[in-house]
Amino acid sequence: MWIERLRIERLRLFEEVELGFRRGLNVLVGANGAGKTSVLEAVHVLANGRSFRGNVRDGLIRSGSAALRIYAELDPDDGSTVRRIGVERGTRDWSARIDGSPVPLLSDVYRELAVVCFEPGSHALIAGTSEHRRRFLDWALFHVEHAFLADWRGYQRALRQRNALLKQPAVDVALLDAWEADMAQAGERLTVHRRDYLARFEPVLLDVARRFLPEAGQLELRFQQGWGDRPLADALQNARNRDMAIGHTTVGPHRADWEIRYERLPSRETFSRGQEKLTVLACVLAQAELFAADRGSWPVVLLDDLASELDAGHLALTLDRLVHSAAQVLVTGTAALPIVSGAEDRATVFHVEHARVRRED
């Protein structure tokens, strides 16, 4: 799947802009504040319902406007009909369309467009809270494991109900038993999905990381499921009195985490900032490659301000790996990037200035 055409209306600086992308490398060049990152942000919002800049949903709408709209035409890469997707955000909520028809669930739109992203805040995958690492896993499972979304929703619903009961002065034990049973069933399945994905992800990441951080030595992934070794039903029962005292659930897949350890970097606290960035970039590229192996087509790859995040050697290594893949890549920079030799015909350059975009022919 790749984006043939993107239309942005009233997002941040943009009043209205339309871009025609190509497969391969699409480079958006412009000064800081020109709007180039907002183009990538629009793609990310269309694919995920949120900005990679964090929880800035209301700030996305252009000042003085009532709503933003993002629309894309997608080439499914398998010879089938072009798909048209769009989202709109007003002052209260999102709405979405596929091929011109309203859809009740935003997740229906998100399934149509898979996007991975590396940007200046991506180091949070290593340095940030476990929420970032769970989201990384769950994005992949949402796109490749059909049963995942139902299990995730079932667990979240039961978790909310259990937490609500824990806050009551007199807990209905029979009701608590029922919701814990639902939590345990959905949570165990959710954990199997996550564990299986990491087992497949590890060798792909190992190959990429060996090229980006050879000095770090052998890589290993470690998964913590969010409770001990006993069945989740038992863990919830044993934690019940403590959870009642504090008013929320302390064990379960919502507390899961995973970490990367290198032979010569035994914990994330020993990573330099540069090693964090390279490790995250390796994770993003490995996730894209595994997605392509699972689905038969690449996700769209977003790379924001790449030249400022990487030295010249790692920049060339990244571009070379992607240009010689089948990925569509959208990358921003304040200056033109070095195009990999022999791939000039796969690169398109856009100049962004004062929220206007001009394609270089």
TrEMBL record:
MF annotations from Gene Ontology: ATP binding; single-stranded DNA binding
The UniProt record lists the keyword Cytoplasm: yes
Domain (RecF/RecN/SMC N-terminal): residue spans on this chain: 3-354
Annotated ATP binding sites: 30-37
GO biological process per UniProt: DNA replication; DNA synthesis involved in DNA repair; double-strand break repair; SOS response
Subcellular location: Cytoplasm
GO (cellular component) term, any one: cytoplasm
Keywords: ATP-binding, Cytoplasm, DNA damage, DNA repair, DNA replication, DNA-binding, Nucleotide-binding, SOS response
Database matches in Gene3D superfamilies: P-loop containing nucleotide triphosphate hydrolases (3.40.50.300), RecF/RecN/SMC, N-terminal domain (1.20.1050.90)
Domain of life, source organism: Bacteria
Keyword DNA damage belongs to the record: yes
Similarity comment: family membership: Belongs to the RecF family.
NCBIfam families the UniProt entry points to: recf
HAMAP family: RecF
PANTHER family, alphabetized: DNA REPLICATION AND REPAIR PROTEIN RECF
Function description: The RecF protein is involved in DNA metabolism; it is required for DNA replication and normal SOS inducibility. RecF binds preferentially to single-stranded, linear DNA. It also seems to bind ATP.
Protein name: DNA replication and repair protein RecF
